[in-house]
Amino acid sequence: MQINEQQKCASSNYLVEGSSLKSFYANAFCAMGVPEAHAWSAAEGIFYADLHGFDTHGAVNFDRIYLRMLREGSIDPVATPIIIGERMAVALVDGRNALGFVTGSFAMNEAIYRARAFGIGAVAVKNSSHCGSMGFYAKQAIDAGLIGLAFSNLGTQGILRPPYGARALLGTNVLAAGAPANRNAAYNLDMSTAVTSAGRIRLAQKQGESIPPGWLLDDMGKAVTDPSAFECGTAHLQFAGEHKGYGLAILVDILCGLLTGASVGPNLTNLQGDGSKGRSDKNIGHFFLALNIADFRSVDLFTAEMDEMLSVLQACPTTQANKQVMYPGLPEAEEAMRRKKSGIPLTQSLMAVLEQVARQLDIEPPKQVSSPNSEGATISRDSSEFDTSS
After folding, report:
1. Whole-structure pTM value
2. CA angle (62 as vertex; 56, 67 as ends), nearest 5
3. Which ranges in the chain belong to alpha helices (H)?
4. How confident is the model at residue 208, as a pLDDT?
5. How far is CA 296 from CA 138, 230, 309, in A?
6. Per CATH, the architecture of 80-194+241-311 is what?
7. What are the domain boundaries of the chain?
8. 10 to each of 44, 375, 376, how far by Cα in Å?
9. Which terminal CB of the chain, N or C, has fewer other CB atoms within 10 Å?
10. Cα angle at 85 between 81 and 91, to 5 degrees?
11. Measured between alpha carbons, how far is residue 7 from residues 163, 199, 320, 343 in Å?
12. What CA–CA distance (Å, rounded) separates 142 from 153?
C-alpha cells in the first residue's frame, strides 16, 4: 500500500485534547529540569506541528528527540540563549546548547524587534539544536504583522548526496517564509530542500507502507519504494528538483553555518565516511529574517493585495474535478481549525509512548477525547502537500 496521508485509517487513532497535550509537553519539560518559561516556549513549538498537521514534527519527536537529548545531556535544560554580537538591524545569537525551540523563538523575536526599529531584522544563530517546524517561526513574524523567513541546517549531519555524488554531505536543510493576509489564511511556506522529510519515510516504514517512486534512489539510480532501504543505507533520499534543491541546501548551510560559526554538512568526516560518523545534533545553526511591511508601503494595501492574490490562486480552474488549487499555509490553517474542534489524532503506539513518559515523570498524560474505533475520529496526516520539512 502506497503512503497517502488522506487515507490513514481513522480507527487506529486516539484523539487528545489540544490544550492537554500542550500542557503535557510543558510539564514533562519542567520535570526534566527545564525552567517553566522555556518549557512552555518549547511546548508551543511542538504543539504547532501537532495542530497544523505536521505529524512528523510533533508528538512523534517529543520523546525520540527532545527528551532523549535532555536525558543524554546533549541539551542543557537551563541554558538561555544570549546575543554575542549586534549592530543595528543585525545580531548573532549563541544558543548555548539550549532547547532549539527556546533559541529559535528568542532569535525570531529579536529579528521582529529589529525589523520594527530599522525596517529589517536579521538574526543568525549558532550552538542550537533541532527546533521543529520552521513554519512556527515564520508564523511569529506573521502574527506580528511582518514578513518572516526562517532557515535551519542540520549541523554536521550528512543525509543527502550531491547530484552524482557518492557521499552524503548535506542535511535536509529547511526553510520557511510567511506573509500576513487579512481575510485569507496567511501564506506560510515550510519546506525541506529534500523531496520529502526523513520523518515521512520513517513513518511509512513503521506503518508498513511503500513510498512514491522518486523519494529514494539506489546506487544505480533506480527508484526504491521500500522505505526500510533508507535506514539500511541501500537507498538515498533525493533533493527536491535535484540541482535546485541541492543549491538551496548549500545556501542554507551558508546562512546557518558559515555565517554563524555553526556546523555544516559538507565536512571532512562526512566526505570520508558517507555521513555515518558525522551525524550530530550539536551546533546546529539558524537564520531568521523579518521585514516590516510598513517601511515599504501601506500595511492595509499590502494585506488587501495579498488577499486578492491568494483568492485568485484559489479561484483558478482545475484539471481534476476532485482537486482544489491551494497555496502554502491554507491546508495547514484548515487542518488547525479541524483539530481545534475535534482534537489531535495520535496513533495507539505513540499514545503508549506518551503515557509511559507520563508515568516515568509522574505527570498527567494527555487527556483523551476519544479512543480507537470511537465515532468521530479524524484522519491523521503527516503533512500538507506543500511541506517537506526535515
Report:
1. 0.92
2. 145
3. 18-31, 36-52, 59-61, 68-72, 100-118, 135-143, 198-206, 228-232, 243-253, 268-273, 299-315, 330-342, 348-361
4. 87
5. 19, 46, 18
6. 2-Layer Sandwich (3.30)
7. 13-78+329-383, 80-194+241-311
8. 25, 9, 9
9. N
10. 75
11. 33, 18, 19, 18
12. 22
161: cell is 548526496
For residue 274, what pLDDT band results from cuts at 50, 70 and 90? Answer: low
Residue 197: band (very low, low, confident or very high) from pLDDT cuts 50, 70, 90: confident
Domain 13-78+329-383, CATH among 1.10.1530.10, 3.10.20.30, 3.40.50.80, 2.60.40.1120: 1.10.1530.10
Q: What is the pLDDT of residues 130-174, one digit of tens each?
A: 999 999 999 999 999 999 999 999 999 999 999 999 999 999 999
Q: Which residues contact 92 (CB under 8 A, 6 or more apart)?
A: 83, 84, 85, 86, 123, 124, 125, 126, 260
Residue 287's beta-bridge partner residues? 124, 151
Determine the pLDDT at residue 180.
98
pLDDT digits (tens, 9 = 90+) for 86-106: 999 999 999 999 999 999 999
Q: Are strands 236-237 and 368-370 parallel, antiparallel or unpaired?
A: unpaired
